[in-house]
Amino acid sequence: MTSEKMNALGYALLQPQTPVPSDIDVSQSIVKEVGLLSMEDLAKQIGLAANEIIPWGTAKAKIPLSVLSKRQDNPSGNYVVVTGISPTPLGEGKSTTTIGLAQALGAVLGRTTVACIRQPSQGPTFGIKGGAAGGGYSQVVPMEEFNLHLTGDIHAVTAANNLLAAAIESRMFHECGQSDELLFKRLCPKNEFSPVMKRRLLKLGIIHSLDDDKTPSELTLEERGRFARLDVDPSSVTWQRVLDTCDRHLRVVDVGVGPQETVKSKDDPTQRVQHSRRTGFDITVASEVMAALALAKDLPDLREKLGSVVIGYSRATKEPITADDLGVGGAMTVLMKDAIMPTLMQTVERTPVLVHAGPFANIAIGNSSIIADVIALKTVGPDGFCVTEAGFGADIGMEKFFNIKCRASALKPKCAVIVATVRALKMHGGGPLVAAGKPLAREYREENVDLATAGTCNLVRHIENAKRFGVNVVVAVNQFQSDTMAEIDAVKAAALGAGAFDAVVSNHWAEGGAGAKKLAEAVVKACEANDADNFRFLYDTASLTIQEKIECICKEIYRADGVDYSEVSLQQIKQYDDAGFSHLPICIAKTQYSFSCDASAKGAPTGFRVPVREVRLCAGAGFLYPLCGEIMTVPGLSTRPGFYDVDINLDTGDVIGLF
Length: 659
Prior knowledge:
Elements: H1 23-34, H2 39-44, E1 54-55, E2 61-62, H3 66-69, E3 78-84, H4 94-108, E4 113-117, H5 122-125, E5 134-135, E6 138-141, H6 143-147, H7 153-176, H8 180-187, H9 195-204, H10 221-228, E7 241-243, E8 253-255, E9 262-264, E10 272-274, E11 277-279, E12 281-283, H11 288-295, H12 299-307, E13 310-313, E14 320-322, H13 329-335, E15 343-347, E16 352-355, H14 370-380, E17 385-389, H15 394-409, E18 415-420, H16 422-428, H17 442-445, H18 449-467, E19 472-478, H19 485-497, E20 502-506, H20 508-511, H21 517-528, H22 546-556, E21 562-565, H23 567-579, E22 609-618, E23 623-628, E24 647-648, E25 655-656
Parallel strand pairs: 3-17, 3-18, 4-16, 4-17, 7-12, 18-19, 19-20, 21-22
Antiparallel strand pairs: 1-2, 2-15, 5-6, 6-15, 8-11, 9-10, 13-14, 15-16, 22-23, 24-25
Helix pairs in contact: 4-21, 7-13, 8-10, 12-13, 16-18, 18-19
C-alpha cells in the first residue's frame, strides 16, 4: 500500500515548490515528472466514454456535439462566471483564479467541476499580455500547447473569415465587367442551383421552399437579374480581413491595386481603371465568425449564423447582403466543422477544462462558448459546477456574458466571482503608473491601506453592477507576497459593504487548489443560497431602441452622463433600424482599462460621456457592435514584444521563454 497522500479525485496531492517556478517550468515539470492523465481517464471524470472523445495528440481531445444529444435531459450543474475589476498592468489573475477555483472545487472538495476558458490569441501571446492558461500552480497543461495553436480553432476562424472577404472582393470585381445574363450563366453553368443558391432564391421569393426543384432555365429574365447581381455598395462593406497577430500597419490597407485588378471605366469604356478600395484588418478573435462560434448552440445554428452574416448593402435596393447571398455560408461552415467542438484539456491537478472560443472582451464577446458551457453543465451533475470565464473587467466581459451570451443560451448563472488584487486596487486608488522594465514603486511594495481603500471604489462599482443581474457575488482577493492583512481586510470590508455575498483571500497561484479552498467553499454556499430564477437581464431587447440600449449600458454599467454619437454612427443606426435589426442586443467595444473611454481614468470615474464613432452590425452572431472612443480592433506591438524571449531548445524540443 502506498503512503502517498491523495486528493479528492484519488490522484496524488499536488506538491508545490517554493519559490514558485515560472509558468512554463511548472507546466513542463507536471508533464514530465508527474505525468498527464490520459484523455480517456480525464473524460471519465465527467461521464464521457472513450468513444465520446476525439484524441488530438496525447494532451488534448475534441468533444463531439453528439454528447449533448444523449444528455439533453440531464439536470444542469451550478453555473458560475469568473470576472474581475478593471484590469491594470499589474494583473489581477482572472484566468489563474478560474483554474484555481475549479481545482479547489474538484480536487479539494470533490465536486465534479469543469472550467470553461477561452483559447488565447497569438497576438498578445507574442506581444505583451502573455497567454491565458492561468499561472503558477493553477494552470492548464501543457501550457505551450494551450497557448500555441491548440487544435487550430483560431486558424479555422481566420480561414472562414478571409474566405468571405475574398468572396466579397471577387463578386464586386466580376459584376463590374459582366451583364446580368452573363453573370447568371457563369453562376449556373450546369442548369442547376447549389443548396446555398436556393437560400438566396428563397430570400428573393423566387422559390417558396428549399425543396423546390426549379431550374435556372425556368427563371424569367427579371428573376435572373435579381438573383445574379448583388450590386454591393463598396462604401457599405464592413467586413474586414483578420489575422491572429498584433500588426498595427494592417489597420488600414488598400486592396485591388495590382495590374490585373482593373475594369472598364463606366465613363469611358475604352479605358480601364483600378478596381481598388480601402479596407483593413481586425485581429481574428474580433471576427464575427468567432462570435458566431461562441454563441452557436449546435452545427445547424452555426450554419445559420454564418450564412446570415451581413457584409454590406445593395446600391439599388438598400437590402442587406449576406454570406449566403455570396454563396459562401456553407463553405465557411465546412471550415469550422472541427472548430465547433470544444477542446478537452486538464489542469495541474488533473481536473477537466474545456477550451473554446476566443478572448478580447474589449472588442469582442470575450467569453467561452455556449456549447462548452452546456457540455460542462450537463456532464457535472446537479451538485457539480461549470466555472466559466468572462474576459477583462466585469463592466465589459461580465456584462456581455449576462446580456448577450445568457440571453442566447437561456442559461441562468447563480454566482459571479470578481477577482481583485491589493496592488491593482492601489493603482485604481491613485497609485503611480507602472512602466515595463522598471521596478515597482514603493506604494506597491509596502503597506498603504489608504491607497488600497481608495481604490476599492472600482471593486464596489463592479459588485453593484453584478448584483443588478440577480447573482450572488463572491470577491476573490488574489494574494501577493507584498499584501498585508490590514490591506486585505480593507478590501474585504469594502466588498462586503457593497453587498458581496462573501470576500475571500485566495493563494491558488502558489498553492494550487488548496490555496483556493475557502474561495470554493464560499462559491458553493453562494450557489446554494441563490435561485437561478433570480437571474435577470439589464435591458429588454425588443422594447428599447438601439440608442436606448446603448445608453442603458453606458449609464447603468459605466455610470456615464450620456452618449455622443458621430454622424456616421447615427446613419448606421438608422440603416439597421430600417433593415429590421433594432431588436438585437448590444456588444460595446471600448477600452478595458476604465469604466469610461479614457484608459487613464482609474477608479470609479463620473462626469464623463461615451463617444460612439461607429456602429457595426453582426447579424449572424446576433448583436450590434458600437465602437467607442479610440478602441482599435487590431492591436500593435510594443518596442520590445514578448517574442524576444520565446525560443526552442534544439536538443529537447522544449519551448523556452513562454512566460
